[in-house]
């Protein structure tokens, strides 16, 4: 029995861009028109938090159709009556901390059990250095955290890691307070926030010194204008379909309208090193973001070494890369990915445990994983640990005809890719 994967598909809107589009629309003055928003649970959390702050954000439609956000400016935000529930979304909690830090009221951010286990001082420390105050109501360095807003000072912050969430929180704090801020990070992290700020007329300057990247925002002091934008497809979601096409025996898959921002395409570059061929067609700019159609066909893969500067641009796709390596020839070694231990779950431990549970060879490292590929059948049950990317990665591997893999929590994929399992079926997979 052969696995044939072919079709012409689109993936849900980009999660990172959806979060930011909603936040900027709610902070702008005037009516914003947004299309293609990801309706997943994480982005619904952002919309819900903004509504609790008095913003006119409608329910996100399941089909990505247009919504209109009636923005009254960030100065019109009001103190929430209850704690702001960020669900499972780290982006919601961390970026909202930056926006709330300059507001003249207090707000408490919380989330589900998984989010309450993730570190937050990486965000509160630089904001506190700007003058914000925080009160931890739970375990140290964890939600729930009360943000006690007020006037902020500018800052020149040197981040210990390349992190879009750290960088964005500082930039949004400076934007809300109207003070200049700069962030220096050891490598360029996702740049959606600064691209969107630039598109909205704010002055953002970027410079590089050696391996360090410096970003400086000088707020204009003007009200943010409303947005009119279509959110492109999420490259992290597209990665799972790319992997499925590579694992197939025959066929060709086209994935349309995918964001190909260079800070988000690390997975595509890595699988090309493994032997894949991914063609970018119809390349264009949409809302300041590079967009293209991806064309992918089956390919024999070989193991590679991954580390250093390659990791930040592929951090969310490392689970799929590691699982894909179980079907590559030779050994794949991934290092420098310690950040995976503080995602929705400890993804390094989850990957190693699940790969071994289905009969693959995997060795857990402190900051990564080693996977030795084979062509033998892989069979057994895996635990998603309430992590959408773990569930989807092993779901893709389970589509190979010789494999028999059961995912214990299929519904968790709705966080980022509603309709994922149905799409696999439409593409001809089991």
TrEMBL record:
It is found in: Cytoplasm. The keyword 4Fe-4S does not apply. InterPro entries: Enolpyruvate_Tfrase_dom, Enolpyruvate_Tfrase_sf, EPSP_synthase, EPSP_synthase_CS, RNA3'P_cycl/enolpyr_Trfase_a/b. It holds the Pfam family EPSP_synthase. It catalyses: 3-phosphoshikimate + phosphoenolpyruvate = 5-O-(1-carboxyvinyl)-3-phosphoshikimate + phosphate. This is 3-phosphoshikimate 1-carboxyvinyltransferase. NCBIfam families: aroA (TIGR01356). 3-phosphoshikimate binds at residues 15-16, 20, 163, 165, 316, 343. Keywords: Amino-acid biosynthesis, Aromatic amino acid biosynthesis, Cytoplasm, Transferase. The active site is at 316 (proton acceptor). HAMAP family: EPSP_synth (MF_00210). Monomer. Its main location: cytoplasm. Phosphoenolpyruvate binds at residues 15, 90, 118, 165, 347, 389. GO terms for biological process: amino acid biosynthetic process; aromatic amino acid family biosynthetic process; chorismate biosynthetic process.
